[in-house]
Amino acid sequence: MKRLLDVQNLNISFSGYGRTQQVLHDISFCVNEGEQVSLIGETGSGKSVTAKAILGTLPANATIDSGSIGFEGMDLFNLSKPDRERLKGTAFSIIMQDPLSSFNPVFRIGTHLDDVMRHADRRQGIPDSAKGRKSRIFETLRKVQLSDPERIFNAWPFELSGGMRQRVLIALALLHQPQLLIADEPGTALDVTTQYEILRLIKSLVVEDGLSLLMITHNLGVVRQTADRVLVMQHGHMVEQGPLQRVFSAPESDYTKSLMAAVPPLYGPNVTNQPVSDKAPIITLTDVQKIYKKRGLFTQGEGHLAVDGINITVNEGEIFGLAGESGSGKTTVARMIMDLLEPTSGTVTVSGTPSENALRLSQIVYQNPGTSLNPKRSVQQILDVPLKHMGYDKPKRRARMEELLTLVRLPVNFLSKYPHELSGGQKQRVAIARALAAEPKIIVLDEPTSALDVSVQRTVMDLLLELRDSLGLTYVIISHDLSLMRNFCSRIAIMFKSRIVEAGTPEEVFRTAKHPYTRALISAIPVISDAEEAQKPTVTDEERSQFLVANTGS
Amino acid sequence: MSQSTPKELTAAYMSWYRFSRNHAAVIGAVIVISVLVMTALAPWITPFPDHIGSVVDFRNRHAAPDAQNWFGTDKAGRDVFTRTIFGFRVSLMLVVGVLGISVPVGAVLGMSAGYFGGWTERIITGLTNVMLAIPPLVMALAIGNVLEPNLTNAMIAITLLWWTWHARLVYRITVSIASEDYIEAARLAGASHMHILFREILPNCVAVISVKTTLDAAFVILFGATLSFLGFGVKPPTPDLGSMVADGRQFLPEKWWEVLAPGFAIFYATLGFNLLGDGLRDMFDVED
């Protein structure tokens, strides 16, 4: 096999604020022609910097200290600037990560595509008319399974769903038939079923056209689906590389082992079944319906049906999971449980007596700890708010703060820190401590780990389980991550288009899912072993198209 | 390569680093500090502190700059250098008076409109828009004519209009902050509206407010000079940059120093505040 990309001893450092920090240490790897390679690493491991070095889009404060990147025998760092530019989009191109922010909202989709094509044509000296370019663009759009290229071409970015936009981004990368496709976490911003479709598409494109693929991801399940060979990075070092089978069945480095262990299993002996609680119900929703009314002069009475016919009973001490994709109504249900929203019809009963002085029975832990902690307030100030309301005097508040930080396994000196000094996992612990400070009986967890790395996710979930046992809490968790819920929840309900389509213990749901949407959802979860893959429920293409077309929108 | 020492980067250090990289900003800070120091020490550093009063020295009138009178003397024989330094006092008093009232008022109104919404929002934004439609100079001249043309009234006139800019700015920031999760989290934890406005939202507006206020200081100095040039400033013989330019104007071009010194002083202070404001903007990473 011919070597296409050859990275040798690459050292890159960033400078800022008068000091330099090395971010890549002696990175060496190669990608052969037609090979699919996955680069795995968590936040800050240097995987995106590696991709940028290959593409030649490093930021201005980055310095290449030593090493080389070879492409088809050319040394990229020795090429002249126009030669280097000419490679972009033709020798290699990148599939952007975020389909929502990668388009300029004031230009039509076609303009984005045509601009890229026109400039690449000019660099390569290909003469083509606007009409010729359009037909080539249409051809590429059909390749990414957008069946109506005319409509896509003339659409505005906001008119397309996330999945369709991700497809257009793939088309952008494919316009000039590159030899190497670099995909930076494709589809991670999308729902799991959409992500699944996108990965299938990328894989089929790569196989059909014999392209090489460098997939950058933190999701090991995605890696198993798309890679021949795996590279694992940690803190700017390459800690392991080898064929997929070998790395997944017998990982050598401790880091790879810990990554594998942190992935929540769907099936098999390692799955945890949370015991079902038989205590009295604490939350009861009966025939709940919520319609968001449009406020306007001429639209009186019209509205958007967010949730419909919801019946849920959550017993005290239970971990109840509400799963669904974006727009399914799960957040609306959670907000009604929190008493932040009134149902349009039906009843929401939250029984139980609040602790003395507590403002309310329930508290919430938000999805993104980056936005749920005020950047201008220290941990001490953040925790002070609920404690003050509990009516504690100053020394009592201080003692309670230290107690809370110890509960969430943070050192007491973190009290003086500000959110930007904390890592994602530490921030989420502070958010949990804030929720606990108000002494709730119920905590609503809104995608509590989706903004965190896998290994951090695991420790946060373990902490939450411990807290439930020691403090006697009830959790309602809303998430789209079924693999997490499988191991964490005592009962789950699946929501689809405003309704609950399936409910039961995770074990029942995963073994004998009745509704085709549930089966499609489960089968779309990327897993890390063939044994688990084999136990997933099967979905016929007919069922998939019935329930997923509306989402992926192709 | 030089391996960096893993010393902690504090927020203050990073801000100072960004600020000090901007050389123009450092110059601005030096200018502003020099103006403040000169103003504070005016009676001790100026050669003829008594020349701010109604001193008349006809033997020395219209004297060209020399070793004794660095910027020459004016039509009454008073030292222009002394009067220019003291003239800063009036300008700075105007800055403190106008911004000291209009910035807090604007910030509180803007925050309330953005946070409470509903009728509070409608009334405050409506009022802001109406006030923004009035040209400040016309307002100042009108008030000066109806009441008495003096510094206090000029200050009132400018203050009446100036808060609108801050209200609008803070309103826009508050609207985006109000929907953040941490505001809802604070409410769920039992925080009062006062706490949310002043402890949660305000700290997030401080950067933008201080940049705007610094840039405003330059405007207010210019505006005050314009008003006193037109005769709506302080009463003579108190030295004031705008009226000094107006007085010296009739002796141009022969007695150029009488206009140039106060004119340059206005330019100097305005430039200083503008450069400093730009530097603060870099430091806080504020997008305009």
TrEMBL record, chain A:
Residues 7-260, 283-522 form the ABC transporter domain. Keywords: ATP-binding, Nucleotide-binding, Transport. It is a peripheral membrane protein. Gene3D superfamilies: P-loop containing nucleotide triphosphate hydrolases. The keyword Hydrolase does not apply. One of its GO terms (cellular component) is plasma membrane. Signal peptide: none annotated. InterPro entries: AAA+_ATPase, ABC_transp_ATP-bind, ABC_transporter-like_ATP-bd, ABC_transporter-like_CS, Oligopep_ABC_C, P-loop_NTPase. It is found in: Cell inner membrane. PROSITE patterns: ABC_TRANSPORTER_1, ABC_TRANSPORTER_2. One of its GO terms (biological process) is transmembrane transport. One of its GO terms (molecular function) is ATP binding. It comes from the Bacteria. It holds the Pfam family oligo_HPY. Belongs to the ABC transporter superfamily. NCBIfam families: PRK10419.1. This is Peptide/nickel transport system ATP-binding protein. It comes from Pontivivens marinum. The lineage of its organism: Bacteria, Pseudomonadati, Pseudomonadota, Alphaproteobacteria, Rhodobacterales.
Automatic annotation (TrEMBL), chain B:
Its main location: membrane. The keyword Protein transport applies. It is a multi-pass membrane protein. It is found in: Cell membrane. SUPFAM superfamilies: MetI-like. Residues 88-277 form the ABC transmembrane type-1 domain. Pfam families: BPD_transp_1, OppC_N. Keywords: Cell membrane, Membrane, Peptide transport, Protein transport, Transmembrane, Transmembrane helix, Transport. GO terms for biological process: peptide transport; protein transport; transmembrane transport. Belongs to the binding-protein-dependent transport system permease family. This is Peptide/nickel transport system permease protein. It comes from Pontivivens marinum.
